[in-house]
Design a protein that fits this description.
This protein is mainly beta. The chain has one domain: OB fold (Dihydrolipoamide Acetyltransferase, E2P). Helix content is 13%, strand content 42%. It contains two helices and ten strands. It starts with 12 loop residues before the first strand and ends with a helix.
């Protein structure tokens, strides 16, 4: 009997664009992915910003869920980019990022907050 797996292999690299150059960026170098208007940006740990032609929903499916979390409709965050979080407006969470990423205000909804707390506290 042959058993086929329905599990999809997670990406190790992501094809991004800087100007007219395409770059195969290792996912461990990705600090943050976010959407602004209809454009998806990828930021690496060297503060370089790239364009990505995929939407956040597809990226969420393709990236390792132990490493990346879909915080809201705008952000996918790498667990290694997170400095901490605090309660925000009594029921939501505000996530604080490390270093140069601190200008991004990431709010996690009341509905998603328990999932985020569980995700960030699990060992990979």
């Amino acid at each position: 009997m042959i058993i086929t797996s329905t599990l999809v292999a997670k990406r190790n690299r992501l094809l991004v664009r800087k100007g007219d150059e395409y770059i195969s960026l290792p996912v461990e170098e990705i600090a943050l992915i976010y959407r602004s208007d209809a454009v998806v940006f990828v930021i690496d740990y060297n503060e370089k910003k790239y364009l990505c032609e995929k939407n956040l929903t597809l990226l969420e499916q393709e990236l390792d869920e132990t490493l990346f979390f879909r915080a809201n409709r705008q952000y996918l965050i790498n667990i290694n980019s997170i400095r901490g979080f605090k309660v925000y407006e009594k029921v939501k969470l505000q996530v604080f990022l490390k270093g140069p990423l601190i200008h991004h205000e990431i709010i996690i909804s009341q509905k998603t907050a328990p999932v985020f707390k569980k995700w960030i506290s699990e060992e990979g």
